[in-house]
Amino acid sequence: MRKKIIYYLAFSLISMVSYGQEVFSTIGVDDLVTLEYEIYPSLNAIELEKKSVVIDFTTLFDKPTIGFGARYTSHSMGFEDYNMHNMFTSFEELHHVSVYAKYRKALANNWNLDATIAPYLASTFNEGITREDFVLSYSAHFIKNWDNDGLKSSLKLGGGYGSLFGKPNFYPLISYSKAVNKKFRYEIGFPITGAYYKINEQSQIDITAQPESIYANNPSGFNIVNESLIDNSKLQFSALKLSIVYTYLFDDNWSSSFSVGYLAASELTIEDSNSNSNNIYDFDSNESVSLNIGISFNINNK
């Protein structure tokens, strides 16, 4: 525990020199290098840590816009305080490695088309890489933009496929965003609903509600007491995350963010993808708070 606290404090001190990816996204900048650390102290006696790095390169043309990038996320599950914790050691370290390509094209009457394809590996990697580790996610949506004397609003309609709720599945993309004034903007829809308030040129506070999820394959054998050995079991986690995010822009390149979140309606299970019954074990995860801190560097400042 002491080692974890020291690691967290060290990462926090480093993170205070910049801010998160979400801020640049709200002001239309895509080219970023982002580091994030997040901790969920208790999901029914289970501790979850999340560490991620994102490298995004978006080459801006007038028409269209093409972008690409990569993301690595490490989830560490702490089962030490959970009953029968020795059975779940194979799920203690989860890895998510993805690359993605984005395409945006301007259409008529202030409509735009956005499309993304993002193949990724999500696994414990206990037995190397298998085809069960691989998931192909993608999305496409249309965006209609309006500009009323500098106050912008937009409508998004589309859909996607991926692990937004844990097990990969199709999901809708629909939202309406409106700038009420130069400081306040809101967004209502799915998968993100939020309110965004710009305090000044450097600071912003966001309140958001959105899904949080993990889906990872375990290629090594797993079994509960007196049960048969199961290959390629899946750890699945899903929840609704409510967050308050404070962001600070130091200059045109560097930023930092800090957020406090609350997880509701969380579910943490181990699944058998080869069985009709599917659910092997349910951890009965409960609500939890989360702490997130991040840094971002804008590599496309001109």
Automatic annotation (TrEMBL):
It comes from the Bacteria. Residues 1-20 form the signal peptide. This is Uncharacterized protein. It comes from Psychroserpens luteus. Keywords: Signal.
